Amino acid sequence: MLQFNYLKTWLQARIDSDRGASLVEYALLVALIAVVCIAAISFLGGAASDQFSRIGDEIGTAS
User: Fold this and answer.
1) Which of 10, 19, 54, 61 has the fewest CB neighbours in a 10 Å radius?
2) How wide is the angle at C-alpha 46 spanned by C-alphas 41 and 48, nearest 5°?
3) Residue 20, Cβ neighbours under 10 Å: how many?
4) Is the sign of the CA dihedral 2, 3, 6, 8 positive or negative?
5) Domain range for residue 37?
């Protein structure tokens, strides 16, 4: 029971503080940036692959 009370007190102290709110906001911001980066890499990766394939085909037919 003592451990539960300690955990409860510790969690309440974290929830009530502004620092905890800031931490959550930063975590959400980092997650959003990661999602945007992954989407951009997925989109640009496919376009770059197509472009390299086209250039490779042109080089192959030119020689």
Assistant:
1) 61
2) 90
3) 13
4) negative
5) 27-63
Domains of the chain: total: 1
In a domain, 54, yes or no: yes
Is 30 a residue whose pLDDT tops 70? yes
The C-alpha angle 49, 40, 26, rounded to 5 degrees, equals 150
The model carries a pTM of: 0.48
Tracing tokens 């376009």 back to the chain, one arrives at: 47
Q: Decide: 14 and 20 in contact? Cβ < 8 Å.
A: yes
Q: Is residue 33 part of a domain?
A: yes
- Identify whether 62 is part of a domain: yes
